[in-house]
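Collaboration report, partner site 2.

Our partner group contributed sequences for two proteins of shared interest, and the home lab folded both. The records are reproduced in the order in which they were received, starting with the first partner submission.
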Amino acid sequence: MSEIKKIVLAYSGGLDTSVILKWLIEQYQCPVIAFAADVGQEEDWDQVREKGLATGAEKVIISDLKESFVRDYIFPAFRANAIYEGSYLLGTSLARPLIAMEQVAVAEAEGADAVSHGATGKGNDQVRFEISYMALNPRLNIIAPWRIWDLNSRTKLIAYAEKHSIPIPVTKEKPYSSDENLLHISFEGGILEDPWQEPEESMFKLTRSPESAPDKPTYVHIEFERGDPVSIDGERLEPVALMIRLNKLGGENGIGRLDMVENRFVGMKSRGVYETPGGTVLRTAHRDLETITLDREIMKIRDSLVPRYSELIYNGFWFSPEMKLMQKTIDTSQETVSGEVRLKLYKGNCIPVGRRSSKSLYQESFATFEEDEVYTQSDAAGFIRLNGLRLKMEALRKK
């Protein structure tokens, strides 16, 4: 322990990292810098700073990462239609590499020789943080308190916090943990550990229940350029403002709730409840625009990459060589994905009802059921015979 000279802790001001801050100071007897990342969570940052200093941090550094989070992480992932196990839109997974990158930059600027995080030894975040640290600066020491201390339960953490007069945002009666950013809010643990138990309505923060959503649909127009959203209802918006607007529209209409049991990278199954209102709307619109702007074979190849791409994000390999290769491939596929989608938002449903693009491959003159002069229907007979030839030969062989 004595060789550690200075530590930068990924700090939120919540239960885990508040206890960890005090514990690191006691255990390593060295300065600890509390680093907090603003990725769009609702937070009193003055209070976070004061709490960190009161708990013993040498310095509290708060970095505004909202713009980078949307532009460099959310938008690239949604160009790929990233989704984990068919449901999860990767809100926490996308934020971790950005936080780790800024934490490493702070450690380098402050002359620290170690970084620390509050992820448990059972979860995915420990992998995401530490693989990112290693990819960005392998010389830094990594301290993962949850894997080495004896405070191995929420109950013990709360007792430790009370002993050291550390204010905590959770109670023994409501001990689930949450993680919030511009893309989503997640809820895990505590009362949610029983997968049969329905989440309480009071828990949800970003979305109305579908039952209480408006009785009339809301129509919204989203415009894209090269796979990225650029305007809502004709108003061009910067990335952060655009996500805030989409979250509001989706949340008001009961869109974006998810309750799932997922497979963690470390091997166990875990129940998570998520709210991703804007992301759900965005992904639906993007996929719909691709139906008229992407070549069929390009779409097949891109779609075949989505499970692997999403798994890389979930498992923490954002800075890996394979991720860079896949992102370049996906971004190339998006060169023609420009245009506008009209959506109907209604009581938890996000329904595409119109799409148009100057780069559209859809031609009404070809697709029409009316008389046309561009398609000779009799040509289909030879096409069918050739495609069915191998099946015909197989059937003859059997007879």
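Second partner submission, folded after the first:
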Amino acid sequence: MPAVVVVGLQWGDEGKGKITDFWAEKADCVVRFQGGNNAGHTVIAGGKKYKFHLLPSGVIREKEAVIGNGVVVDPEVLLEELAALGQAGITPHMHISDRAHVIMPYHRWLDGAEENLLGNQKIGTTRRGIGPCYADKISRFGIRMDDLTDPEGLREKLHRIVPIKQALLDALGIEKKLNVDDLHALCTRWGTELQEYIEDTTLFLNALLERKKTVLFEGAQGCLLDIDFGTYPYVTSSNPVAGGAATGTGVGPRRLDSVLGILKAYTTRVGEGPFPTELRDEAGDHLVDRGQEYGTTTGRKRRCGWLDLVAARYACRVNGVDEIALTKLDVLDGLDTVRVCTTYTCDGKKRDQFPASLSVLSRCRPHYEDMEGWNSTAGITSYEKLPAAARRYVERVSQHLGVPISVISTGPSREETIWHP
């Protein structure tokens, strides 16, 4: 298919980086369509580990790589990642949307202050300025990538924006002083170093699709962190759902051919908010230890639980998923019993739909279906060679969701993957 959207079906950390890299072998271009450097994608290839926060995961295959207008860009992080690729001998073919918004220093300061003020009700952000940058985009106070290459227009914008941001910093008790000249110099340097990559990427992407080239649209985070469809307010500041691929790149929705949903064989989340299948026992420790469930971006330990098929079914519907890549099946190796949540009980009543209300979700108790465990799937690359119990697990998940599972990951490296047509 020429245009494939890759989306996470849980609270992020599903293994989108590995699967995008795996699919990128057949692609001509990989594009990030939302999020910022609050995302963390890890790819292991050729015995080397690559960690990305802004660059599309397919970049190590030296495909065309695009950062779309829906992404918020921290230029310092981007420059560091480009330099790291250069040191690894990889030359990225980068294209950055001139309409993508820029994370400024004051966005990071405001992010941290707002989290501190929330106290016990904090969202659990990465404090990297993502939310304040998106807020400025909506409030029409944003600095965009095209501004970095227009010194005169940039200075005019800064003179309008800086007094407002200084007043906010002062009101929040942040002892930082903004200076238009300093910010202008910083932005101008970013513009000089990134100028060769900044362009109208809508032209580039639509031209590729006109020529029947294959483009992967890579989302960050996951459906349950979507600003509209996630567990609000414990969500990210953008739309990681498949629909975000159109608004985040300037490619019309009718050009998007299929949606690949990434589903981890169990459930994790980072940050605050209700989590019906969360485990606080030996099984939970098993998932953390075997899955190395620590954030790529923050290093925070992830909360782990059994696979929640109520939430997954909702995510499949919202994204219009055509097929699923099931990741980290090997992490369940060695468990005598593997459980999946098929429905909830809330206030004494059965519930099989994922609620919008956090109050309701916090009262939902999982109803589990128990399945026989298995010894080892690690590194297996043929579906027929999986233990029978593991195959039953895969088939039960696919049956419950009504979506075929076409890819199964049995380890962190690119090679530890099963095609299951």
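Feedback sent to the partner group on the second submission included the following. Residues 3-96+198-259 form a domain with the Adenylosuccinate Synthetase; Chain A, domain 1 fold (CATH 3.40.440.10). The chain has three domains: 3-96+198-259, 101-194, 264-419.
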